[in-house]
Amino acid sequence: MKITYDLIIIGGGSTGLMASEIANNFGAKILLVEAERIGGDCTWTGCVPSKSLLYSSSLVRQAQKAKELGFVEGKLNVRFSEIKDYINKIIQDIYEEESPEALKEKGIETIIGHAQFVSPKEISINGKIFKSKKFIIATGAKPFVPFEFIEGLDKISFLTSNNIFDIEELPKHLVVMGGGPIGCELSQAFIRLGSKVTLIDMEDRILPKDDPEASNTLLEILSKEGIEVLLGKSIKKVEKTSSDNIKIFLESGKEIEGTHLLIAAGRKPNLDTLNLSAARVETENGFVKVNKILRTSQKNIYAAGDCTSIFQFTHIAGYQGYIAARNALLPIKSKGVLDYVPWTTFTDPEVAFVGSPRLLTDLKKGKYKETLYSLKKNDRARTESSTSGFIKLYTSSRRKLVGVTIVSPNAGEMINEWSLALHNKISIVGIANAIHVYPTYSISSQQLGSDILQENYFGGFLGKIIRLISRLYLR
Q1: What CATH number matches the domain at 4-39+98-143+268-329, 3.40.50.300, 3.90.950.20, 3.50.50.60, 2.40.128.460?
Q2: Which of 195, 291, 328, 470 shows its CA 20 to 30 Å from the CA of 285?
Q3: What is the distance between the alpha carbons of residues 410 and 349, in angstroms, rounded to a whole number?
């Protein structure tokens, strides 16, 4: 006998977990299906392990800076096995809160197995058929591996974000293919832990989706830390050497020999085994095609998170899981495709952005004005010798806020204020008039807002009028 659910959620990562929690609160009869492990990439191979590794490596950097400030002992001996133990402990601590057992206590039914559509209202899991009124596809994404572009890649062992945390020893020479967020974060982490690191990207800059000035600032910092960065270079061929190393041949003719190769060339949606054609769900450029309320081409099927968008971030995935569940179970629909997208690359310093997805493209066309505030003017940054950064505001011709880039320690925390401002249409005046704590990095936001206000009030004809009124008042 087929069991009929109100909602079946396919994928137990950030999107699916949020959707299941919201749907459960509505009192719906739901089923959460996960192919491998509840928690998805974020818990097991993404945010949690990578940020734990970054934290560990930051302690090494702090010890180095301490020596520069006069401390005698300025070096830490790295025991990589114990760093791995620390990472695994954090993963397990978080997983315990989202395990099948923990979800069962909340009343959420889970099944581990591969789901496959057999019709728009039925899926097969481990040979059994399950029926539901509504579905949410939340299968996430997986590392893209360019086998067809690199000769010999299928004949060697390489790393991706899925298995780099499984290595037993610290790489002697890590070669990283890809200068996006994953490539930059892991390159910096491993150089600090003691690996030699070479970063290769076919683009002419790292972080190509971010502001060019932010990319250049981070490039300078990574280079100073000892990372060899090769831009505008593509890998033609790879092969295993007699000493079990990996030789990388670039199109330019340059050869590099490393002990490990990390492929960080982007991610692609995890849709291969879903049999979307049976559900009559359309895709576009490899992603599930959704409208603004996250509904697919099939009225009863929604999709959310990394399988729907190039903006593959856990916070967006969780938000869309919440919206998708609401829209699937309520008659009043909410918008799930965001006007303003925030993100952060968690290097040191962090690189954060919020704005419309097309903003950075429009900058090249001169549509917006850029106003920059250097961290050299921030007293907290001075006290911590961390002045290599900035806040940059993008405004329309009428000085309306349209986006922000921040390169700074704690940029991921600082960008939230600007995300809130954009979402709630808070003006630059609102930011400037809100008292910020001194000395903090965040006060730079208020100071930048104040600079813009003073420019508006005291520049040009308006400034002349204000000064005239002041003089007349003081007589």
Answers
A1: 3.50.50.60
A2: 328
A3: 8
